[in-house]
């Protein structure tokens, strides 16, 4: 049965940390953050009070980076803004036929694991799909495309609020672009997500018009505009 409840998408980090990523979380009161090297994302309650912000500050330590992802919550004035980036959240529609490209067994799609981390980090450094850390692949399934043994493209599962799985770290080496690698990898992940009764979603920077066009061509629809924000704790 396909999930139609979109409320979890308004707090994707918090709902992941309290649910399927609880084993990768540090918590204090209603504040939570990912383990170091998995992700920098943190969450407070959707209606945080001073106590919640104090708990997150205690959890992260003084002068630490608090990556609040897409949360619109405003921290106390002594939390210094570090970055702000406009983007959009896109979802796979619950109705309508799947037009996802299939990942045939012979197309070089492989599942990536701990041994592949140096190559994954190198590909991320060359392509800049968004934040990625040495243990990010523990958040879900990461798929790669190898050509002559070299990793040229990858994509994986990141946030996992109830009923949904986020597709992330979508990137293709510059000299391997335009051959459908990203489409095939996103399609393969989305097919698996839909098969387990969930729906795929993703986030993309507003300036990344090429990626937005790719996702729209695959069938993703914009659910809402978001602003990614980071702060420094007092
Ligand atoms: C966005 C990105 C992942 C796309 O990777 P890609 O492997 O080139 O993507 P695809 O090949 O599946 O599709 C891209 C283009 O190739 C075209 N294409 C797809 N299959 C093709 C094929 N078999 N032959 C020729 N062209 C093809 C598509 O039409 C598309 O063209 P268009 O978007 O200009 O209309 C890549 O540009 C990238 O790594 N960007 C930097 C990181 C990034 O921004 N990631 C997204 C973060 S949200």
Short overview:
This protein is of the alpha+beta class and 234 residues long.
What does this protein structure show overall?
There is one protein chain. The protein is an alpha+beta fold and 234 residues long. The chain has 2 domains: 8-87, no CATH class; 89-225, Gcn5-related N-acetyltransferase (GNAT) (Aminopeptidase). The chain has 5 helices and 11 strands; from the N terminus they run αβββαβββαβββαβαβ. The protein has helices at 12-17, 50-60, 117-127, 181-195, 209-218, and strands at 25-28, 31-34, 42-43, 65-67, 80-91, 109-112, 142-147, 150-157, 164-172, 199-205, 221-232. An 8-stranded mixed beta sheet has the order 4-11-5-10-9-8-7-6. Strand 7 and strand 8 (150-157) form a beta hairpin. The radius of gyration is 18 Å and the shape is globular. It starts with 11 loop residues before the first helix and ends with a strand. The mean pLDDT is 93. The structure holds coenzyme A (COA).
What features would you highlight for this structure?
binds coenzyme A; 23% helix; three-stranded antiparallel sheet; 2 domains; 234 residues; alpha+beta; Aminopeptidase; eight-stranded mixed sheet
Can you give the helix content as a percent range? Answer: 10-25%
Which homologous superfamily in CATH is the superfamily of the largest domain?
Answer: Gcn5-related N-acetyltransferase (GNAT)
Euclidean distance between termini CA atoms: 46 Å
Bound molecules: coenzyme A
Tally of contiguous helical segments? 5
Cα-based radius of gyration, to the nearest Å:
18 Å
| Biggest sheet strand line-up | 4-11-5-10-9-8-7-6
Unreliable sequence segments: none
Shape: globular
Can you give the mean pLDDT? 93
Highest-level CATH class of the largest domain: Alpha Beta
Q: Could you say how many structural domains there are in total?
A: 2
Strand-pairing-aware structural class: alpha+beta
Largest sheet: 8 strands, mixed
Which fold does the CATH topology of the largest domain refer to?
Aminopeptidase
β-strand percent reads 25-35%
Helix/strand order, N-terminal first? HEEEHEEEHEEEHEHE
User: Which CATH architecture of the largest domain is right?
Assistant: 3-Layer(aba) Sandwich
Number of strands: 11
